[in-house]
């Protein structure tokens, strides 16, 4: 059954979700983003941009949030024109951002106080997966809320499941993103080694992706790293600034558990060095330039 789905946060991920909800699922999509250009893009894709987060909550049966920071989530939930201000009893909010459990729990409690349900539901995948409707979503929290939301997942996900109490989805997401950081750094080093050894990069990628060293990170981000093109909006999987934010959340989560992670820690300098170069709007694969720089290679 088609429902009205609200999307708050129309970046790479939110736009991909909205397009599939409209075209694949046949749902009506209303949305809001502070960026006027993103609202215009939603309209061009067949959705209906609205003037505030509160208006989205009022118009929608289910709301999806895909946001870049804790401050953004707080504004979306508790702001003057936030979701809570709509006072729409029984609204299910699917929170897909990569943020700390504490930040999400604060937002969940604020919505529960006005009769709404928030699900902690981070997604795994990048821009291309969002565009193709091939995300995986790990939903945690209220079972009845999950049952209401589940029918829309087939429109923008290839896999979905309820994984347990609120916060479990984020725990899984942070572990997965730790691996993404490691895999990205490892492939950047492999590309630098191949260049020094005289191995053609296209050949490297062909052989890695059919061998035991492959990963989904290499499959979806590797082509950008091989080409050395990180700023093309048609191929970019995410912004480096988002991965830096995610790595900070992961690091704090790990510290709270007192688990040694030397492999993850060794990947961090690549991302921080790329950030220091000002490449914040480039794809995270731009860390390949750092590996090339440190190896005495010409940056591509």
Question: Could you describe the 3D structure shown?
Answer:
It is a single chain. The chain is α/β, with parallel strands linked by helices. It folds into 2 domains: 4-165, NAD(P)-binding Rossmann-like Domain (Rossmann fold); 171-294, N-(1-d-carboxylethyl)-l-norvaline Dehydrogenase, domain 2 (Orthogonal Bundle), CATH 1.10.1040.10. Helices cover 54% and strands 13% of the residues. It is built from 13 helices and 9 strands. It has a 6-stranded parallel sheet with strand order 3-2-1-4-5-6, sandwiched between helices. α8 crosses α10 (216-227) and α8 packs across α13 (287-294). The radius of gyration is 20 Å and the shape is globular. The model has no long low-confidence stretch (mean pLDDT 95).
């Amino acid at each position: 059954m088609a429902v009205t789905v609200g999307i708050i946060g129309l970046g790479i991920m939110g736009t991909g979700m909205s397009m599939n909800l409209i075209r694949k699922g046949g749902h009506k999509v209303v949305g809001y983003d502070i960026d006027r250009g993103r609202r215009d893009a939603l309209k061009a894709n067949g959705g209906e941009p609205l003037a505030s987060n509160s208006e989205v909550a009022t118009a929608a049966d289910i709301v999806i949030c895909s946001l870049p920071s804790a401050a953004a989530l707080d504004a979306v939930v508790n702001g003057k024109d936030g979701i809570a201000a709509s006072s729409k009893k029984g609204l299910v909010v699917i929170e897909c951002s990569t943020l700390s459990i504490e930040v999400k729990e604060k937002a969940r409690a604020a919505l529960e106080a006005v009769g709404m349900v928030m699900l902690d539901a981070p997604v795994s995948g990048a821009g291309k997966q969002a565009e193709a409707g091939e995300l995986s979503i790990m939903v945690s929290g209220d079972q009845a809320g999950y049952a209401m939301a589940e029918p829309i997942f087939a429109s923008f996900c290839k896999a979905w499941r309820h994984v347990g109490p609120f916060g479990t989805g984020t725990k899984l997401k942070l572990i997965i993103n730790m691996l993404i950081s490691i895999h990205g750094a490892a492939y950047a080093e492999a590309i630098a080694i191949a260049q020094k050894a005289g191995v053609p990069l296209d050949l490297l990628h062909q052989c890695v992706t059919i061998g035991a060293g492959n990963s989904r990170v290499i499959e979806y981000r590797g082509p950008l790293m091989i080409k050395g093109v990180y700023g093309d909006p048609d191929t970019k999987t995410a912004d480096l600034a988002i991965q830096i934010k995610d790595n900070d959340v992961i690091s704090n989560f790990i510290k709270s558990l007192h688990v040694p992670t030397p492999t993850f820690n060794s990947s961090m300098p690549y991302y921080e060095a790329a950030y220091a170069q000002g490449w914040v709007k480039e794809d995270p694969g731009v860390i390949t330039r750092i590996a090339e720089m440190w190896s005495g290679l010409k940056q591509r």
